[in-house]
Amino acid sequence: MERIDCGCTEYNELSRRNFLGDGRKAAAAAAAMLATAWVPKVVLARDHDSARDTLVNVFLRGGADGLNLVVPHGDPDYLGARPTENVPVNQTEPLDTFFGLPRAMAPLNQFYAVNDLLIVHATGSTDPTRSHFDAQKYLEYGVPGFRDPSVVTGWLGRHLATTKGTGPLRAVALSSTLPRALAGGPQTLPIRDLNRFDLDGRTSTLLDRRQIISNAYEADRSVIGVGGLNTFDTIDLLDRIDARSYQPTVNYPTTSFARSLQSAAALIKADVGVEAIEVDLGGWDTHSTQGTVGGRFETNMATLAQGLAAFYGDLYATHRNKVTILVHSEFGRRVEENGSNGTDHGHGGCIFVMGGNVNGGRVLTQWPGLSLQTRWQGYDLDVTIDYRDLFAEIVDKRLGNGASLASVFPRHTPNYHNICV
Amino acid sequence: MSDQRSSVSVSRRGFLRAGVGGAALVGLGAGARVAHAAPPPAPPPHGRAGDLVQVLVERITGGFNWAEVQRARTMGYQAYLDEQLDFERIADDSTDALFANHVTLRMSPEERYAFIASSTTNRNIAYAQFDDHTILRRIVSKRQLYERMVEFWTDHFNLDILDDLVRYFVTDWDRKVIRRHAMGSFHDLLKASAHHSAMSTYLDNNTNAVGKPQENYARELLELYTLGVDNGYTQQDVVEVARCLTGWSFWSSRNAVYGDFRYIASRHDNGTKTVLGRRILGAGKSEGDLVLDMLCWHPNTARFIAGKLAHFFIGYSPEPAIVEAVATAYMNTAGDIKSMLRVLLSPAMMTHATPKLKRPQQFATSLVRATAGQVAAVGSSRNDVGSAMASMGQQPYRWPTPDGYPDSLTAWGKSMLPRWSFASRLLDGREQWATIDPLLALAQIPGGLQPGGQAQGINQMLTGGAIPDDQVLELQMFIDQRSATAQTLRDAISIAASLPAFQWH
User: Fold this and answer.
1) What is the pLDDT of residue A19?
2) Domain count, chain B
3) Which of B211, B313, B392, B453 could pair covalently with B360 via S-S, beta carbons 3.0-4.6 A apart?
4) What 3 state SS string does A360-385 have?
5) How many CB pairs below 8 Å do chains A and B form together?
6) CA separation for the pair B268, B264 (Å, rounded)
7) A94: distance to nearest CA of chain B, Å?
8) Which residue of A has its CA nearest to B21?
9) What is the pLDDT of residue B50?
10) What is the pLDDT of residues A369-414, one digit of tens each?
């Protein structure tokens, strides 16, 4: 079985131990116990590589219906396949002569207009599975259709592991568990709420408690040892940034998705070397009562578009040239709606790419058509643009890591589509 | 099996290092160290070397507890396991009594609907009482293995309480599907799940009808509940299974039959289907029963269930021979769960156990169990059980997708702070549902309260002695620098619970 040689085990992170100085081992404990003050471990990134964008990865979990996120009104088979679950043409904003954006997605139009938003259609993972869990897994691991069970690190994790970072927190997922795309990434943590990331308990013993716990994690050779150390560094980092008092330049919606994006903006604007941020949005598995217009799906689109629009607007003046935002799902949905006013698991869908250096303002597609003859396996929108081609171009041009593409997306020779500069 | 090396004799460090490629010591700069010029000798796994009884207790209960391990040692491995397998004979009235006032647990779906729909307060009460029931039983029940199996099946057949009508049906599901069959027959369990309204509404099979098949449930039935993903079926099989299950629904009128299984013949597709290569002629509801039988008897189902059980109890990468042995037990007994467990949990298998990271719920229950905490079913409050579990990302019945909470190092291995915070809150007395008396807790450990020995006592109490010596020393210095008051010991226990050793079992 072919193994992915990417030099990206968790233990790359251990080299940080040198940087931190001598481990505070038991022999030093006595001295340490007497000292009531500890030296902050964090060295804020002074010369963070500003040539690299911060990548914001938004995973629409559940299989988002690409045909209704970006509507192919120019395709003669769209309305026939979707007698109920369609977006009428008069409820869309035309993107070009073929595609339209539903009104719930309208907040994104302004960025399409200034060419910062690129929409890619009939794209996604080439993995044939219609299982959410396998589709997500192999997409995040970056090995669709290849499925080597020995690959247990994510594409973003491998990107981070093959580049040098400067900050104490290189990547963060705003969730309770670590998404697979980030697995294997050094200085990478899941944090549900950036504003509440602090050691709990009595302040009178805080420093000593911290000392003992951090010593133990520093000595630990496992994944949790690394995670524990990163935790303390991140506590200090967030304390220094004081994300809680962050003042955005726009008003964010009150959804938890938007709140997460707001704290992501605080991190990005602090310029502390955070290179990747994942924010997921679920609720796209619309097997029944999809509510394309006036229902669940439309609400979810509004959450997505309003959150992203606020986020990008907040970053626009100062950071639009320092971020790339990727929005994608594990697969699209069946071309034909089912009998429950819903749609079953499909294949191709759409991907959104935003940023100041994105060649946007257009829909990039090699449209395969929705007719029975052109559907993938007779059911689904085909994938004519491999998501890895898009992600790889970003890793190369915006994240400065073209040299490691063979590890980031093994067994894939990327074919760029000129999506960014 | 005989030539396989015992994993238990392999150190935890060795195991973890092997798991990620053997580069563990690169860049350590170890020369500067005084205490350990060379890498420290590998400690036995959690200090449990050769102590299979402790490994067994930790895996089949809500967590290590000093008295429980002593009891198991006295009984002997097999007698303790037999006791836990024969759970019906363990009186557990005191556990049931804990929930005497949690009336929503025993409501019918009709009553539950009326209660929950009447106010937000009532809805929160219903949720909190169910969270109490799920988590507190794992702490105090004498049927510990049974509660572990409830946990296992709850993940296997995961439901999201916030989805559709699940909230009204979920306690009925817990009683009549999960708890009724948790240690019975997998065949019965699968069939009960397929007939239950909670599953039906969660995966939309109630809308699956002739001419408009709905494959959500059919797909997960094959992928998550029986054969395993892409393991012997095709997309066409998914479609055909969905057709067989058309018309399988539940009574939606909110009266005495609310949520009962209902087969609606007019919505059934009576055409001929082909499932897994077998032609199925139109025969109404029995087509679905036939499909379930085919899946129950399928060897891939046996292997899939065996593999998940081994992953749960033995380790992240169980030996294939273990899985095979459990799968054989499944095939030989028509999916009898106790028979599978009897093989899986035998000493011969348990010697292959490798360390697993506790998931947040197990972290919480193990901390309360180890410290002999007193629990109270407080229901809805600011600091209730559900909030505590949510703070660590594992509130019961809140994982939205049908695959259930992950059980992997990748998912949970970097989320330590929420655990440390929980330990602080619990030991500081800020969790209303559990009270720890540190003096009483340590008094159960021989020498646990002796001056100079408290840290070792805490180590024994939490892990049976798995915390490395240097860390025990640091902890003792923490205590010695203060007076060994209850408050100091609270802090010390919370520190110890935050150390790496307590994260594993």
Assistant:
1) 30
2) 1
3) B392
4) CCEEEECCCCCCCCCCECCCECCCCE
5) 221
6) 7
7) 32
8) A9
9) 57
10) 999 999 999 999 999 999 999 999 999 999 999 999 999 999 999 9
B492 lies in some domain: yes
DSSP B387: H
**Chain-chain contact of B32 with A22 (C-beta, under 8 angstroms):** yes
What's the first-to-final CA gap in chain A, in angstroms?
Answer: 37
Instruction: Please calculate the CA angle A40-A46-A48 and round it to the nearest 5 degrees.
Output: 120
Instruction: Output DSSP code: residue B145.
Output: H
Which residue out of A223, A333, A347 would a mutagenesis test of the B interface target, given it has the greatest number of B Cβ atoms within 10 Å? A223
Q: How far is B474 from chain A (nearest CA, A)?
A: 6
Interchain contact B420–A (C-beta under 8 A): yes
Fold for domain A28-75+91-408? Alkaline Phosphatase, subunit A (3.40.720)
- Where do we find the tokens 């990206």? A8
What CA–CA distance (Å, rounded) separates B91 from B304? 33
Report B:390-409 residues touching A (Cβ under 8 A). Answer: 392-394, 400-401, 403, 406, 409
- Considering only CA atoms, which of A329, A342, A215, A222 is closest in space to residue A282? A329
Beta carbons of A29 and B29 less than 8 Å apart: no
The ipTM value here is 0.88
Residue B319 located in a structural domain: no
**Domain around B450:** 360-503
Q: Is some CB atom of chain A closer than 8 A to the CB atom of B86?
A: no
- Chain B hits for A62, CB-CB cut-off 8 Å, are 401
Give 10-residue mean pLDDT values along chain B (505 residues): 34 33 27 31 45 96 97 97 98 97 97 97 97 98 98 98 96 98 98 98 96 93 96 96 98 96 98 98 98 98 98 96 98 98 97 96 98 95 93 96 95 96 97 97 95 97 96 98 96 98 97
Residue with tokens 């009683």: B175
CB A9 within 8 A of CB A184: yes
Q: Cα dist. A358→A45, A120, A322, A352 in Å?
A: 26, 12, 11, 11
The CA distance from A30 to the nearest CA of chain B, in Å, is 8
Give B36's contacts in chain A (Cβ within 8 Å). Answer: 25
A84 pLDDT higher than 90:
yes
Of the candidates B337, B295, B330, the one whose C-alpha atom is nearest the C-alpha of residue B185 is B337
Q: Are A252 and A183 in contact (CB under 8 A)?
A: no
- Contact between B109 and B259 under an 8 Å Cβ cutoff? The reply is yes
The whole-angstrom separation of Cα B12 and Cα B10 is 7
Of A25, A220, A344, which is closest to B216 when you measure between CB atoms? Answer: A344
Half-sphere exposure of A139 toward its Cβ, with a 13 Å CA cutoff?
Answer: 30
Q: Where are the domains of chain A?
A: 28-75+91-408
Contact B414/A131, CB-based, under 8 Å? no
Distance (Å) from the alpha carbon of A33 to chain B's nearest alpha carbon: 8
Query: Can you tell me which residue has the tokens 């943590």?
Result: A189
Helix runs in A270-404, H state only: 296-319, 387-397
Closest partner CB to B411 (pick from A18, A177, A189): A177
Token code pair at residue A245: 């008092």
Assign B122 to helix, strand or coil. Answer: helix
Among candidates B417, B46, B378, which has minimal Cα distance to A172?
Answer: B417
Strands (E), B248-326: 248-250, 261-263, 273-275, 278-280
Distance CA B79, CA B18 (A): 34
Residue B155 lies in a domain: no
Quick one: which of B197, B245, B256 has its CA closest to B222? B245
B444 lies in some domain: yes
Could you tell me where the DSSP H helices lie in B197-269?
A: 197-202, 216-220, 235-244
Closest alpha carbon within chain A to B209: A339
Strand A276-281 to A171-173 pairing: parallel
Residue of chain A whose alpha carbon sits nearest to that of B504: A224
φ and ψ at residue A323, rounded to 5 degrees: -130, 150
